[in-house]
Amino acid sequence: MKRTIKLFKIIAIALAIILAIILIKFRPAYSVSLNGENLGYVGDEEDFNNEVNENILTPSEVNVAFVELDNVEYSFSLVSRNEVNEEEVMLALKENAKNVYRVYEVADLNNEETKVYVNTMEEAEELVSTLKEQYSEIEPDLVINPIYLDNVDEVNEENIKLAKEELTNDLQEELEEKEEIDSRTVNGIYLAVVPVTGRITSRYGVNESIRDHTHKGIDIAATRGTPIFATASGKITFAGWSSGYGYLVKIDHGNGVETYYGHCSKLYVSAGDTVDAGEKIAAVGSTGNSTGNHLHFEIRLNGKQVNPESFVYQNN
Q1: What distance separates the 2 farthest-apart alpha carbons in the chain?
Q2: pTM score of the predicted model
Q3: Is 103 helix (H, G, I), strand (E, B) or coil?
Q4: Are residues 85 and 64 in the same domain?
Q5: Within a domain: residue 132?
Q6: Do residues 137 and 225 share a domain?
Q7: What are the respective helix, strand and coil percentages of the chain, to the nearest 5?
C-alpha cells in the first residue's frame, strides 16, 4: 500500500514537472482562420473579438453602412509562446474586410433610367422637395431608396451635379410634354395629329367675299390628293356630300367634341367606322363651295365651332 502511494506521488511529481515545462514553452491560444486559411494565433478569443468589432467592424468612414468580414473561425490550440501574433492577425483581417457604403437614390418612377445618388437622407429629401415644388404641374413621382455600394467613388460632387441636371432636364421634358398635350386638348380630348400639312389660307372668324358669314373653321392649302388624317380617335358620324362643304367627314371624339373635314376629293371611311388618331380618312380636294384645293377643318364643342388654331396649327 505504501509502495502504491509512493508510486502515485512520483507520477504526480513527474506530471507536474512535464506540465510546468509545457507551460514554460507553450500556452493556450486560439487559431484564427479566414475562409479556411490560417492567419495566426491570438491569446483570448473574446478579447480579440472585441478589438475586431472596435477597430474593423465599427464604420469610421463617411457613408459606410457596415463592414463585411465573413467566414472567420476560431479553434482552441496549444502553441509555443512566440507563435501568438495578434497584430499580424488583426492586420490580415483589416486587409480582407470590405466596406459597404450606403447612399440614397432619388429616382423618377416615370423614367427609371434617371437616378441621382446623394450622400445623406437629408440631401435626398431636400432634392425631392425642391423638384416636386418646381414641377408641381406634372406631380413628379419621385422616390428615395437606400442603395448599398462596394465602391462609392461615383458619388462625388461632379457626378451628383450632372445627375441632378439630367433628372431636372427629364422633368422639364415631362412638363413641356404635358403643356403641349394640355394646349391641344379640348374638353379632355387630345388632338394629337395635324390633319394635313400645308399653309393656312383662311383663318377662323374672318369675313370673306366668298361667304355670307364669318369663317367657322380654318382652310389649309395642299395639293389635291394629299392624305387627310383623323386628328384624334373617334367614330365617323358622317361621310358624304354636304352642300357647301362638298365631300365631308365628321368624327365624334366624345365629350361633346367633333371635327369636320370638308372639300375632300376622296373619302376613305364610312359612317359608323371607328378610327384612330393619325388614320387616313380622306384626300384633299376642292369640292363644294371652294376656290381651290384645300382642307376646311372645324372643331366643334357641344355643337358650337371653336377656333382650331387654339389647339392645332398653333405655330402657323
Answers
A1: 149
A2: 0.67
A3: strand
A4: yes
A5: yes
A6: no
A7: 30, 35, 30
